[in-house]
Amino acid sequence: MLHGLAKYQEGIGVVQDRFLNYNIPYADYVAMGVMFVEIIGGLFMILGFTTRFIAILFSIIMVGAIVYVKFELGFLQGYEIDVLLLAMSLSLLVSGSKFIALDNFFVEKKKKK
């Protein structure tokens, strides 16, 4: 969520230019999408709302970050954190949200009907 807010504060033009420099396809649209997913998706993750769907989106972003930005830097100085975040997203994709989460509240409502 904080990375998305940092992108928002920089301005979409700056983020789009950075994505263009990384040779990311459709950089204008991808920059807006990444910023939106990082902000709204981060909030949804905190609340435990649509956890699995957001985990898929975060996984896609992490794969893109590794492939287009960090891979050339190597593992230890580049993409080790991104691999960790990818693993966490995949873990949430498999397990879903637990305990106190809005997903569980809505699932309970559906089961009662």
Mean pLDDT, rounded to whole units? 87
**Quaternary status:** single chain
In sequence order, what are the helices and strands, one letter per element?
A: HHHHHH
What radius of gyration results from the CA coordinates? Answer: 16 Å
Largest sheet entry: none
Any idea what the shape is? globular
Membrane topology: Multi-pass membrane protein
Transmembrane segments: 26-46, 53-71, 83-107
Subcellular location: Cell membrane
Keywords: Cell membrane, Membrane, Transmembrane, Transmembrane helix
Which structural traits does this protein have?
single chain; globular; transmembrane; transmembrane helix; DoxX-like_oxidoreductase
Care to give the gist of this entry?
InterPro entries: DoxX, DoxX-like_oxidoreductase. The protein contains six helices and no strands.
Please give a structural write-up.
This protein has helices at residues 2-10, 12-21, 27-47, 51-70, 75-95, 102-112. Helix content is 81%, strand content 0%. The model has no long low-confidence stretch (mean pLDDT 87). The protein is globular, with a radius of gyration of 16 Å. It has 6 helices and no strands. The chain has one domain (2-112). The protein starts with a helix and ends with a helix. The protein has 113 residues and is mainly α.
Write the layout of secondary structure elements.
Blueprint: H1 2-10, H2 12-21, H3 27-47, H4 51-70, H5 75-95, H6 102-112
